[in-house]
Amino acid sequence: MHSNNKDELSLRWDNVPKRDDDIMTYYKEHAAASELTKPKYIEYSFYEVFQRFVDIIVSLVGLVVSLPIIAIFGILIKLDTPGPAFYIQKRVGKGGKAFNIYKLRSMVVNAEKNGARWADKNDDRVTRIGRFIRKTRIDELPQFLNVLKGDMSLIGPRPERPEFTLEFNKEIPGFIERLQVKPGITGWAQVNGGYDISPKEKLKLDMYYIENRGIKLDIVILLKTIGVLFTGNGAR
Asked: Would the pTM of this model clear 0.70, i.e. be above it?
């Protein structure tokens, strides 16, 4: 995760659930999941089915089209710095379910050997190739596999790490409400500030999406995502 406001939150790493089932239990105990955030049953069911159908089709096509790009940058990453081409990290999905997210590695190996920290502008842990693939979001392309597996959707709140999700919910009550829906590769918060906004601002934008999600809003987000890819806005 990235943030430009490390002083806003005083992170504490104690008393944080360590197992995946602990995180799911924490979500069930703390999330309100208000019915007001859900459309009517029939509309909700149609949208869920339609969204999953689109996710499968687009992720399959996306994987096929992006495989050459992933392969090329995978080789460049290996040539640029020692270490694996891919980076796998635990994230939290819908209902507090943990999953492994896939990314092209954009930082040096052992970037968090001194503890978890967010990426800053001009972060010295980001490699030369990493800076480019983060700006263009190429590092996110392997997440089409997460979408195909059902861990993520194309559109939704960005998935956070378990410890950050729990700690943010202590500091920002309601942050865990983001787990009502599947996380996405892109989302309303991503196209309206991305990693340049604070967790509190991210929650507000993500809740707007959850409360208003539908085909029309998804189309708007996809169109705005294209603009972000060309400008690199909100990248770190």
From this structure: yes
